[in-house]
Specification:
This protein has a 4-stranded antiparallel sheet with strand order 2-3-1-4. It contains 7 helices and 4 strands, in the order E-H-H-E-H-H-E-H-H-E-H. The protein has a single domain (about 5-135), classed as Nucleoside diphosphate kinase-like domain (Alpha-Beta Plaits), CATH 3.30.70. It has about 140 residues and is an alpha+beta fold. The structure holds inosine-5'-diphosphate and magnesium ion. Inosine-5'-diphosphate binds near residues 54, 59, 93, 111 and 112. Inosine-5'-diphosphate (IDP) binds next to loops.
Length: about 140
């Protein structure tokens, strides 16, 4: 299995609901190492840039307003098969379809406010990591 890096975010609802520690604990318990971490409050413009791939979707304005509504925690996670391991820990986008025991099944109550973001492929992971972190902010 390849060692990969992926970008994780705890969304504003996850921060507001006080589950930062629980979410990070799940990552660590499953072998994902934190290589960079920061808390920040995205502007609407920054949220729109991050989610530009979804700009034609009907939920784009609502999603980016939500994502800029409060602080988030951004992290680089690293480990074997990290992109898929993180996606498996997150669960399906729609919490009602997420497997029991996943972060979204346990904490999300809305399809939009679904606690976490995780990159979906190596190319998007690279772009999303560079969105949040420069080389000096990453440990190796
Ligand atoms: P993902 O976060 O599981 O990768 P994406 O399809 O990439 O899901 O969608 C990005 C984010 O947009 C989701 O995490 C969720 O917050 C929001 N979203 C996705 N589908 C819907 C929808 O049908 N209604 C409202 N928000 C949605
Ligand atoms: Mg996605």
């Amino acid at each position: 299995m390849p060692i990969e890096q992926t970008l994780s975010m705890i969304k504003p609802d996850g921060v507001a609901r006080g589950v930062i520690g629980d979410v990070i604990g799940r990552f660590e318990k499953h072998g994902l190492k934190i290589r960079a971490i920061k808390m920040l409050h995205l502007s609407l413009e920054q949220a729109r840039a991050f989610y530009a791939v979804h700009k034609e979707r009907p939920f784009f304005d609502s999603l980016t307003t939500f994502m800029s509504s409060g602080p988030i925690v951004a992290m680089i996670l690293e480990g074997e098969n990290a992109i898929q391991v993180n996606r498996d820990l997150m669960g399906a986008t729609d919490y009602r379809k997420a497997a029991p025991g996943t972060i979204r099944a346990d904490f999300a109550r809305e399809i939009e406010a679904n606690i976490v973001h995780g990159s979906d492929a190596p190319d998007t992971a690279k772009v999303e990591i560079a969105f949040f972190f420069n080389a000096l902010e990453q440990v190796c």
